[in-house]
């Protein structure tokens, strides 16, 4: 799922590893089918990939992190 936000040639795949490390997401979880993830994990993956992989100029969200723990919120404040 995360790889869909990157070029097909694999030249930017390292960015997925950085994202997983930054948000302390287990690699095994990243290999799980998206439909098998809980709603919270789905939200985290979608927002993290939009912000860190797609790098939009503007992203408007309405309380996307209100259910996340402080540990998960920390990288968002640093970015």
Would you mind describing this structure in some detail?
The longest helix has 15 residues, at 39-53. This protein has helices at 14-22, 27-30, 39-53, 70-78. The chain has four helices and no strands. It has one domain. The radius of gyration is 12 Å and the shape is globular. It is 47% helix and 0% strand. With 79 residues, the chain is mainly alpha-helical.
Q: Strand pairing plus helix content: what structural class?
A: mainly alpha
- Tally of discrete structural domains: 1
- Secondary structure tally: strands: 0
Overall 3D form: globular
Instruction: Name the beta content range.
Output: under 5%
Please bin the fraction of helical residues: 40-55%
Write out key terms for the chains shown.
4 helices, mainly alpha, 79 residues, globular, single chain
Task: Indicate the topology.
Blueprint: H1 14-22, H2 27-30, H3 39-53, H4 70-78
């Amino acid at each position: 799922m995360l790889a869909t936000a990157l070029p097909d040639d694999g030249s930017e795949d390292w960015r997925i590893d950085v994202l997983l490390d930054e948000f302390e997401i287990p690699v095994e979880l990243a290999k799980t089918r998206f439909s098998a993830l809980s709603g919270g994990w789905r939200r985290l993956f979608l927002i993290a990939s939009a912000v860190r992989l797609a790098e939009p100029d503007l992203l408007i969200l309405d309380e996307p992190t209100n259910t996340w723990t402080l540990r998960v919120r920390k990288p968002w404040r640093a970015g």
